[in-house]
Amino acid sequence: MGKFPSVLLFVLFKFLRVRLPSWYGAAVDSLLPFIAEALPPEIAARFQPLTVELVALGFCDPVHYFVHEPEVGGKFYMTVFRHSSGQHTASIFLNVWPRAKNSDRYVRASIATGFTDGTALVSSTDEAGRTPDSLKMNCVYQAGIPVLWTSHRQWIAPTAERKTISPIHTREELIAKEERWHKIMHAFQRARGVYRKRSPGREAKADQRAVPPCINGPAGRPASPCQSAFRKILIFAVILIAVFAIRLITLAPSIQRSFFYPKPPGLPPVVDQATGQWLARLQAVLETNAPVVAQALQPGLTDAQIAALEKQDGFHLSENLKTLYRWHNGMATNSPCGLLPGQRFLPLDEFIRQREALRQQEASLTLAQRAFFKVFAGHKRNWIHVLDDGATDGYFYDPERAEVEGAFFYNMAETGYYVWFPSLNNFLAGVIEGYESGAFKVSSDGKKLEEDDKLTEKIWSRLAKSNESKL
C-alpha cells in the first residue's frame, strides 16, 4: 500500500493548484490570490474540531487560504469566519516552517473585532508578538475555543462601549476585512525588516504560484472559459478521489487502518506497582514540585458517574483508566497549565460533549465528505482523548486495543507520529520522573510549565516506543 493515498492526493492538489489557509505570517502583499475552495484532507482534519466549536458559537461563512513560499520552504494555512452577529471574525491557522523545529505542532485560533476608526482587538491562542498600534493583541496561549471566546468578549467590552464596531454581514465583507488587516500587518512587518520587498522577478514568480484569477475572480463575475474548464477538472478529480476512497473503505479497511493507525513495533516492559500507587506518588510529586498543577486538578469521579458516562457514550474504560478518573476528573478549561507542558488533562464528561458535537458535524457532511472522513480520520472514531494539546493532538486511549498492545499513546495527526505505552502505568512513571528530574518544571513566574525536550526524550525512550527510531 505504501504512501499511495497521500501521493495521489498530493498530485491531484498540485495539478489543480488548490490553495488553502494563512495568517499574518504570510510574506505576500495580498491574500486574495491565495483564496481556495477547500483544504487538503490532512489539514481539514486538524482544523475540524476547532471549526465545530466556532460554528457552535455562531461563526459561519468559512473562507480558506493557502500560501506557499518556496524560497523559505514555508506553508501557511488559514480559514476565517464571520460571526452571525456581524460583530466579530475568527480564524484557524497553521504555519509550517521546515527550518523551525515543531513549527507545525500546534493549530492556532484567533477571534477579532474591528472598529469604524480602523482599529481592531484580536484575541489569539498563539504566543504574543509585536503588532502595529491599530491592532491590539490579547494572548490566551493554547486556550480552547470556549475560553478564547469568553476572554475576547470580556476584553473588548470596555472598548465597545466607547467605539462603534465595524459590521461584517457578508462573505465579501469578510474577505475585504481580512485583506485590509493583512495589508496593515504586512506593512508593519516590512517596516521592521521582517519581510523584504520582492524584486520584480520574484514578484512575478509569486504571482505564477497563486491561484489563477479565473478561479478566484470577484463574486458575481460570469464564469470564464478558464473557470469552466477548471470546474470540470475539479469535478473529475473529486469523483476520482471519491471512487478511490470508497474502494479503499469497502475493499481494504484493514490496510487503510494500518496505514494511518499502525500497531507498535514492540514495546518495553510494563513497570511494577499498581495504577493507584503511581497516582498517589504523582499527587505527592505535583504538590511538591508543581503546586499550580496540583491545584488545577478537579475532584475525581465516582464509580457510578464513570459507569453513567460509559453508558452515555457507548465505550468501556480499562480498570487503569477508571482509576485515573477516580483520582481526578481532568482540569477546567481555564486551567493555567496542563498535566504536562501544553497538555491539558481533559475531564471525561467534557470529552464526551466534544465527541457528540463532532458526530453532529459529521452527520451534516455530504457522502463524499463522509468518505474522506472515514478514510483519513475514521480510525480515530473510538479514541478517548485523555490529554489535549489545544489543537486536537495529544494522548489518547483506544478501548478497542489491549493495553499491552499500546492502547494508551501519543499521536500528532499531521505527521503520523505515535508514541505507544505498554501500560498507563509507564506513562505515569514517566510523568513522575519528568517532574523529579526537572524535565517538567514550573516557570519562574509560576504561571506555566516548561519542558526540557532532551530529558523528556530520554525518559520516554525507556518507557515507551515510537514509530521513529529516536525512541
Quick structural summary:
This protein has 471 residues and is an alpha+beta fold.
Key terms for this structure?
single chain, 471 residues, 2 domains, six-stranded antiparallel beta sheet, 44% helix
Task: Walk me through this protein's architecture.
The protein is an alpha+beta fold. The chain has 2 domains: 18-211, no CATH class; 262-466, SMI1/KNR4-like. The chain is 44% helix and 18% strand. The chain has 15 helices and 17 strands. The chain has helices at residues 4-16, 41-56, 145-162, 171-192, 200-209, 225-251, 253-260, 275-289, 291-296, 303-313, 319-327, 348-363, 367-377, 424-437, 453-463; strands spanning 35-36, 59-69, 74-83, 89-96, 108-114, 120-124, 135-139, 297-299, 328-331, 344-345, 384-388, 394-397, 408-412, 417-421, 440-442, 449-451, 465-466. Strands 1-2-3-4-5-6-7 form a 7-stranded mixed sheet, sandwiched between helices. Mean pLDDT is 80; it is low at 1-24 and 209-224.
Find the CATH topology of the largest domain: SMI1/KNR4-like
Q: What oligomeric state is this? A: single chain
Q: Distance between termini?
A: 25 Å
What is the CATH architecture term of the largest domain? Answer: 3-Layer(aba) Sandwich
Task: Write down how many β-strands occur, each being a DSSP E stretch of 2 or more residues.
Answer: 17
Number of helices: 15
CA-atom Rg in angstroms: 23 Å
CATH superfamily descriptor of the largest domain: SMI1/KNR4-like
Name of the level-1 CATH class of the largest domain:
Alpha Beta
Name the helicity range: 40-55%
The total number of structural domains is: 2
Whole-number mean pLDDT: 80
Strand order of the largest sheet: 1-2-3-4-5-6-7
Shape: globular
Report strand %. 15-25%
